[in-house]
Structure formats: structure tokens, C-alpha cells
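Sat 14:20. Reprocessing the chain from the morning session after the first attempt stalled halfway. Input below, unchanged.
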Amino acid sequence: MFLSRTVTIFCTTVLILLSQTLCTFGSVPNVVILFADDLGYGDLGCYGHPTSHTPNIDNLAVNGLRFTQFYSANPLCSPSRASLLTGRLPPRTGVWPGVFLPESTGGLPHNETTLAQILKGKGYATAIVGKWHLGIGRNQEYLPIHYGFDSYYGIPYSQDFCPCLKCFYPNDPCFNQCDLYYTGCPLFKDDKIIEQPTDFTKLEDKYIEHATNFIASSASKGTPFFLYYAFNHVHHPQFAGKRYRNSTSRGTFGDSLAELDNGVGMVMQQLQKSGVEGNTLVIFTSDNGPSLRNENRGGNGGLLKCGKGTTYEGGQRVPAIAYWPGKIQPGKTMELTSTLDLLPTIANLVNGTLPNVTLDGVDIGPVLFEKGKSKRDTFFYIFAYADPKYPIYAVRHKQYKAHYYTEGSSNCDFTHDLDCRPTANRTAHNPPLLYDLNSDPSEQYDLSSDPNYASVLKELDEIRRKFAAELDWAPAEILKPSDPNVEPCCNPGCSPRPSCCHC
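Finished this time. C-alpha cells:
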């Protein structure tokens, strides 16, 4: 009997170790994308901010690969998120111009293939926690569960589309009252509203709980998983719970950023606890540059010009870190890369099937795993409120960037640089403004009048003309007629709106 029990214990132990080994060293890696909202190039400690408290993200940077020339596909929320998930520029997906509103009837077209769908096709469990912002539609037809995600827990758009009244514990008001004519922020679980209005002082703790439970559950089953954790932090109005209010020397923005950092830390801790850190690719980045209109309660673009909503560097060059112990060597890379590149890179990594459409991303595996060169040498800047009449605002090829059009943004109001403000109307430049971003990332010194750069301007213009002629523009989903009945309400048909939408 003793021998039988010993054999049973031994066999059980072997099975557990085998399960852990398969989970850790399986044929396909787990994938975690940590996507911040409106986080600027200069907001993190590891990117030079002197008072931000971001120890967990900084630790990722120390032990991972930190990018210095990584670009969001667009300087606004909805189009940048569409590009992250599809590997395609916003005109191709129809996610233009601007962003989806609570009453928008459009959304990410269902004929687009997302990264979640590719990974689900390879047997992955898939989940999104946080902000979606790619439409809701009639009968919730555009929520994430219709795009390859097994589960969704979050707010489907930015919290500035809600009449925010309480953002900080215990009872501090929000510093932006936001759009009072909308219903309160709805917290969705899959396609059902479970809380409205959302209590922001407890929101991040709920996000963390769902994200870590998903990791733990998937790991215990030995199932590869894809977690897309799309933070509402640090979009305005900023918010934070009890532990983080007045916890930093950077004020309300710093408190919000510290809570975001804690979310990153808890995800990493769960990966370690579940024994899958060694077989998980983690990507941390931001959807666009910082919103500068809130002054000290806004983000920071560091040495980069302007911010969110513009095609200057501060609008689209964002912090990015890739982490995979034993696979990605720690360090820094200056290779040109983009959120557009994540879909083809991850699809190739798991031997997934790429969609039969034009992709604007490239496989950056050599940058991640070989310290090699990027296959990308060109990047196209498309304005936040895109218009086929002005398809390409700027082009970067190698280290040179040419601005054919420049325009400010309401997200950069009150900044010291008049080029960034909404009063800076669209301006055509002929010849285009020319900058060497390797020596002048702040875009201060225009080289266009220097005859030594005539050949550079000619090459950039040929690249721009060719790409603009080939760029397909899908019908604009954001321009579809609005319908107030689409706006989320947990008590459909109630009155008076919006106050009756409360549960």
C-alpha cells in the first residue's frame, strides 16, 4: 500500500511538472499587450521623467528591450487602436476621421481580421480588459466579443464621454466634468452592462482582478493566452483609488500614472506566480502621444514637439518596451518600428495565418530576437481627422521626415508652442518642412532650403506620391449617422435620460 501511494504521488508530481513545462516551454508563447492611453514619450521614469513613479514599467525597461523610435499608427484613440489590432492604417479599415462617440452607429468593420482572431485560430484563449473604443453599434454588434475575444471587461470608450463626478478617493471631484449630456460610463462584461455609472476609484482594482484571473485560469489549463489590457489611464479626466491618491510628487496625473504602473506590476507578478513568465511575450506601449491641453494635469512628450492629435513627433512617437526573458535581450533599440508591426510579428511567431489584405505592418522579429535591423524604413503620418484630399501629412524615410501639411489640435491647447494649438490651421508646405530626426527629434531646424538635401526631398516626395496613389480608403465608419438609442444605458427606454441610466 505504501508503494502504491508513493507511485501515485510520484506520477502526480511528474504530471504537474510536465504540465508546467509544456506551459512554460510550449510551442507557442502567450502574448500580453499592455496599452496605455495618452501616455507621452516623456512620461515614464525610464524615458527620463524626473518625478514619475513607475517602478514596474521601469523594471520592464531594464530587463526588456526599450524602443526609442516606436510609432503609434495615428495620433488619436480609435484609429490607433484599429491599427494595433489589424496591422492596417486607419483609411484602409474605415476608422476615420476622428474617434467613435457613444452614439456612433459605426464600428470596426467585421470584415477586418484582428490579432485576437488570428490567435484564437491557433487555440489561444483571448481576453480584453479595459478600453475598446472601436464602436458599440446597435445591439452591441461592434463590441470585442465579435472580433475574436472570448471575453470583455471594461468601458467601451474614453471616460471623457461621461459626466464624471468622482475620480479620486475618497470624494475628490473630477477635474474635467466631461460631456454631461451623455450617460454615465458603462462597465461592460462581454455584451452586458454590469455597472453604470462606473466608480473610477475602484475601476483599476477590478481590471487587475479580471486580468490576473484570466492569466491564472489559462495557465492552470495549459492553454496559450492573449491578454489585451487597454488601460483607461492616463486619459483625462485622470482618476485613482485610495492607495494612489496624493501618493506622488507629480499631482493627479502622477497618481493616475502610479496606479497604471501598479496594474502592470500585478500582471507581471501573476505571470511569475502562474509559472508562465518564461513563455510570455509582453509588449507595453501607448495609443498616441500626450494630451497637453490640461497643462500640469496632462502628459508630457519629453523632447518631442507637440502631442496628441498632431503629426509632429510628440503626437505619434510613443514609449514602447518588449519583454520576454531568455528570448529578448535587454537593451535599447533605435530601429524604426510601429504598433502596425505587432500583428504580423506575432502572427509569424505563432505560425498564424495572415489575412489576405494589404498590411502596413512588417515582422520586427529580427529587432526583438536578434538585435537586428527593422524591415521598416518608412513611416506615413496620417492626420487624426483624416481626409482623402490630404492623405499624407508627413513621411519619414530612414532618419528624414518631411511635413507636407501641418495642423494643430485641441488636445494641445494652452501649450507654449503655437504650432501645436488648435488655432494652427492646416498649412501646406512647398517645399515640405524637412528634419533629420536622428539629430533633431524636436523638429526645430528645417533643412528644406539647404541645397544639400534636395535629393532627400525628391526621394521622400516620390515615396509619398506612390503610397498616396496606392492607399485605399474604406468608407468612413465614424461618419455614419449617429443615433442616441445606441448610447449605452442599462435601463433601455427609461426616462429622463441620462440620469435614469443607473444600475
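The CA atoms of residues 164 and 216 lie 33 Å apart.
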